[in-house]
Amino acid sequence: MSDKLKPCPFCGKKNIIIETWSSGGPMYMVKCNNPDCPVPAVGYPTGSNLIEVEEEWNRRAENGKSKM
Ligand SMILES: [Zn+2]
Predict the structure, then answer these.
(1) Which of 1, 10, 17, 39 has the most CB atoms lying inside 10 A of its own CB?
(2) Is 36 part of any domain?
(3) Gyration radius of the chain's alpha carbons
(4) CA of 52 to the centre of ligand 1 (A)
(5) CA-CA distance, 48 to 15, in Å (whole number)?
(6) Ligand 1 center to residue 24 CA distance, Å?
(7) Can you tell me the distance from the alpha carbon of 29 to that of 10, in angstroms, rounded to the nearest whole number?
(8) Which residue range(s) make up the domain with 40?
């Protein structure tokens, strides 16, 4: 289901979930579901376009990796 999402750039775990809720339309947030993982200062990728939110997550995952 979420195989296309890269592992968390902070903890390296693959426990990634997509939260959905409604706010004048469907909203999505890709987040790490590891309770020990710190929430990034900039927050998790959020938006009304699931594809874009997933792509942003993967972009951050790539960036996080290159910094390590
Ligand atoms: Zn994490």
Answers:
(1) 10
(2) yes
(3) 12
(4) 20
(5) 22
(6) 29
(7) 17
(8) 16-62
What's the 7 CA to ligand 1 centre distance in angstroms? 8
**What contacts 40, CB < 8 A, 6 or more positions away?**
10, 60
pLDDT digits (tens, 9 = 90+) for 22-43: 999 999 999 999 999 998 888 9
Expressed in angstroms, the distance from the first to the final Cα of the chain is 28
Rounded to 5 degrees, what are φ and ψ at 5? -90, 135
Residue 46, both tokens: 């959020």
| Token pair listed for 7 | 């592992």
- Give CA angle at 65 (14, 43), nearest 5°: 70
32: tokens are 């790490």
The secondary structure element, H or E, covering residue 63 is: helix 50-67
The reply to whether 2 falls in a domain is no
Type and span of the H or E element at 27: strand 26-32
